[in-house]
Design a protein that fits this description.
Helix content: 25-40%
Number of strands: 10
Order of helices and strands: EEEHEHEHEHEHEHEHHEH
Distance between the termini: 26 Å
Strand content: 15-25%
Largest sheet: 8 strands, parallel
Radius of gyration: 18 Å
């Protein structure tokens, strides 16, 4: 299985990929404002690379529950100076975390390799042709509702079945738009229109999405469901997040999106080293 994203190709099976989160926003739930200035963002990017990040995901609009939408002009003002300083300086793929077609287009022109789209469930008629044209990687994430509404009593008949149906339909639609399945990664969207039970069920059965034959990405870093589960504040959620990461890694998940690159890299590399030493079952 291959994941093709611009000039980069990842061939699986291989060590899990760790995607470092770089929020260049004043209001992200976890680190809003810390890396809002381009110089601070670029410094943080290089730090995550030194910690072992395989990709960087740059976002200029918070998608936390209830977040206010950012105008396109403002989102571009936030991300383009950072992208322009990173592209050509780093040797790993850079992803743009956006729902807007024009922001994605400007980022692709600047040299990014992946579009991470939390709005995959919406009308993507303007975005997908760009992904096809640039042969970019594409993260197709499931979300019920919008960031403004997604946590207003989310309901599912069967969350695993419905997310699976979503992936099946979107993969077909992407192919029709000219985006090869080899460009696509699937993200069940932990915390995006899901209750605590929905999130736990998706993580517990995350291997149910592997039969699509595409890499699966899991993003649990510092999310509020961990606070509800464990009674922890934002800065105390790393152990819970690493537990979810370990569970998913042992079930075959291939990508992990995180704020805590060093800890996540140590976790997945240790698990991989141990797994390599288990003799095959006769």
């Amino acid at each position: 299985m291959e994941w093709r994203c611009g000039q980069f190709t990842f061939t699986f099976p291989r060590p899990a990929l760790v995607m470092g989160i770089l929020n260049v926003t004043p209001d992200s739930f976890s680190d809003g404002g810390r890396f809002h200035e381009p110089a601070a963002a670029v410094e943080r990017a290089h730090q995550m690379i030194s910690e072992g990040a395989d990709l960087l995901d740059v976002g200029g609009e918070s998608t936390r529950p209830g977040a206010v939408a950012v105008e396109e002009k403002e989102e571009l003002r936030r991300v383009l100076p950072v992208l322009e300083r990173l592209v050509g300086q780093v040797s790993i793929p850079i992803s743009i975390d956006t729902q807007k077609a024009n922001v994605a287009e400007q980022a692709l022109k600047a040299g990014v390799s992946v579009v991470n789209d939390v709005g995959t469930s919406g009308d993507r008629s303007a975005l997908w042709p760009l992904v096809a044209e640039y042969r970019a990687g594409y993260v197709a994430m499931h979300m019920q509702g919008t960031p403004q509404t997604m946590q207003s009593a989310p309901r599912y008949r069967d969350v695993i079945t419905e997310v699976s149906e979503f992936f099946r339909e979107r993969l077909t639609s992407l192919e029709s738009a000219g985006v090869s399945s080899q460009q696509v990664v699937l993200d069940p969207g932990i915390g995006f229109g899901k209750s605590l039970d929905h999130n736990l069920e998706l993580i517990a059965q995350v291997d149910r999405f592997l039969p699509f034959g595409r890499p699966v990405l899991l993003g649990v870093s510092r999310k509020s469901f961990l606070g509800r589960l464990l009674g922890t504040e934002l800065g105390e959620r790393l152990p819970g997040g690493l537990a979810c990461t370990a569970w998913a890694a042992l079930r075959g998940v291939q990508l992990f999106r995180t704020h805590d690159v060093a800890a996540t890299v140590q976790l997945v590399r240790t698990l991989e080293s141990l797994a390599a030493r288990v003799p095959p079952v006769p």
